[in-house]
Design goal:
The complex is a heterodimer of chains A (about 250) and B (about 270). Chain A has helices at about 1-40, 105-115, 125-140, 155-165, 175-185, 195-200, 210-230, and strands at about 40-50, 55-65, 70-80, 80-85, 90-95, 145-155, 170-175, 205-210, 240. With about 250 residues, chain A is of the alpha+beta class. Classes of the chains: A alpha+beta (about 250), B alpha/beta (about 270). Chains A and B meet through strand 1, strand 2, strand 6, helix 7 and strand 9 of A and helix 2, helix 3, strand 5, helix 4 and strand 6 of B. Strand 9 of chain A pairs antiparallel with strand 7 (about 125) of chain B.
């Protein structure tokens, strides 16, 4: 009888200990996840500023990665498991540069990169870096780099705009993950305007001006125009004629 | 005998306009703008079903003679990449623009993709090819003028089909209309109200430049943008009503199709 009680006691203790450990693991995971989420910010670029009496918002665009057509041979890495799956559609947001081309690296090099500065590289610093990222996404012809938009309250952007005293169009701001999600919900009819404004009103610190990225994205835009000019005419038979001795490509 | 129809597609907010010229043999198509996102593919779904219904072989790319981005704002250009990717186009046209990256990304796509045979910035110096026997003419922007206000870089496109003209206006605001309103053809029978029916698309102070030159027998099309900024504005609706114009709006009539036989226009819409 005594032995049984001891056995039950040990069992209970082990159970309680296991439960505590499991709870701690879950708690630490959620903490890490929360911290990771908080650490994520998305670069958004001002497209249009509306200063109407009843609507003070700025439309901003950001890069997306999309997949329209089914494609095989994808692997989902989830909690240490690698799950093969068939991609039937994808929408994601590009928020930082890529960490180099792992396919051409040895496992040691990849490990070094994971620990090294590449994954900590959080912002875009040059047009080539942006272009390389988009090239990498589109290389296999399955994924496409696109753009999408959100609306940000001017009350959040304007203090920063005044500080820098420049034309807002084309400027890049970093928007923290939680604010970005709220803005996406507003954009996609999942959150009302009042609710969004209320939520955003206490999140001034969730938006920061990104000077370096403003320059990088502006240079990337100029790069696209320049490359298009270099290619013109893509199809000489379809090039438009003009009514006078004017007319060149430009954007 | 041919017909020319334009459909203002109800995309929830923003513009998307399908042009179809048909002589009973092989129809030709053009598209102006799209505001699709991954979550709301209104233009794409409309086009897909329309092409299926009309028996267009969408695998025989390019389906479109041209795709035009009226101006470089997201609510007009989003979704064009996916549409060009799925259907293909001979021409991709766009205006010159001061500063927008969404256009840069479309140009990047046009440069690299085989689904776009040619792409080019256009202005009023360019001579555009016709859509069947319909003629296309750019009234705005002027050659080598780029406005800091992106709306005023909008391509104003006149599409003439014998005695009938359709005028597609993008988001060109009152300042533009002060300059080009006298060029509005007297044969205009369908006029897209600029900038979704906003006050600054129609009024300059108390003046209403395009309204003063648009023939009153023209049907007006409004691509509404109710969310998030309440376009069309009631002030614009009031002035259209007071001037006895007939207008159709995508938030009330949904998809609206205007069809010309070269002399007159018939209107068909999805809902009242």
């Amino acid at each position: 009888m005594k032995a049984l009680l001891v056995f039950v006691g040990i069992g209970l203790s082990c159970g309680i200990l296991t439960a505590i450990v499991a709870y701690m693991v879950i708690w630490i995971r959620s903490l890490v996840r929360k911290r990771t989420m908080e650490g994520i910010s998305i670069p958004v670029i001002v497209d249009d500023v509306k200063r109407l009496t009843d609507f003070g918002f700025s439309r901003c665009w950001y890069f997306t990665v999309e997949c329209y057509t089914p494609s095989p041979n994808w692997v989902l890495r989830l909690r240490g498991c690698h799950i093969p799956f068939l991609m039937v559609g994808l929408s994601g947001i590009i928020h930082r540069p890529h960490s180099g081309r792992w396919s051409s690296m040895s496992p040691q090099q990849i490990a070094k990169r994971i620990r090294g500065p590449y994954l900590r590289k959080r912002t875009f610093t040059s047009p080539e870096q942006i272009e390389n990222l988009l090239d990498a996404i589109e290389e296999d012809g399955v994924l496409h780099a696109g753009t999408a938009d959100i609306w940000m309250p001017n009350t959040l952007l304007e203090p920063l705009l005044q500080q820098y005293g420049v034309k807002p169009q084309g400027l890049t701001f970093r928007v923290r993950y939680d604010l970005f999600c709220a803005a996406m919900d507003f954009r996609n009819d999942r959150l009302g305007r009042k609710q969004f404004e209320e939520k955003a009103s206490s999140m001034q610190e969730a938006v920061t001006f990104s000077s370096e990225e403003s320059s990088a994205f502006a240079a990337w835009r100029r790069m696209q125009v320049s490359l298009a000019r270099g290619q013109y005419p893509k199809d000489p038979e379809l090039a438009l004629s003009w009514s006078s001795e004017q007319g060149t490509l430009g954007a | 005998m041919s017909s020319l129809s334009i459909t203002t597609i109800d995309v929830g907010w923003g513009d998307s306009i399908l042009l179809m010229w048909d002589n009973g043999a092989k129809p030709k198509f053009g598209l102006v703008d799209s505001n699709d996102t991954v979550y709301m593919q209104s233009s794409y779904i409309f086009l897909r079903r329309f092409f299926e219904k009309t028996g267009v072989d969408i695998d025989a790319k390019p389906v479109f003679e041209f795709v035009l981005l009226s101006h470089a704002h997201s609510d007009h250009g989003q979704g064009l990449q996916a549409i060009m990717s799925q259907f293909g186009t001979k021409h991709f046209w766009y205006p010159k623009s001061a500063e927008t990256g969404s256009l840069a990304n479309l140009i990047r796509y046009a440069r690299r993709s085989t689904n776009v045979r040619h792409h080019q910035a256009i202005d009023d110096s360019k001579i555009l090819p016709g859509l069947g026997d319909a003629t296309l003419k750019v009234l705005w922007p002027r050659y080598n003028q780029i406005s800091a206000n992106e709306n005023n870089n909008s391509v104003v496109l006149s599409v003439s089909h014998d005695q009938v003209t359709f005028l597609l206006t993008g988001d060109a605001e009152g300042d533009v209309w002060q300059e080009i309103a006298p060029q509005i053809p007297g044969t205009t029978r369908v006029f897209k109200v600029p900038h979704h029916g906003s006050v600054n698309g129609t009024f300059v102070g108390t003046q209403t430049p395009w309204l003063d030159h648009c023939p009153v027998q023209a049907d007006l099309a409004i691509s509404s943008h109710v969310r998030p900024f309440s376009h069309p504005d009631q002030q614009v609706i009031d002035v259209l009503t007071n001037r006895h114009f007939t207008f159709f709006r995508t938030d009330e009539h949904y998809h609206v199709t205007f069809t010309s036989d070269g002399n007159a226009v018939k209107v068909k819409y999805s809902h009242v």
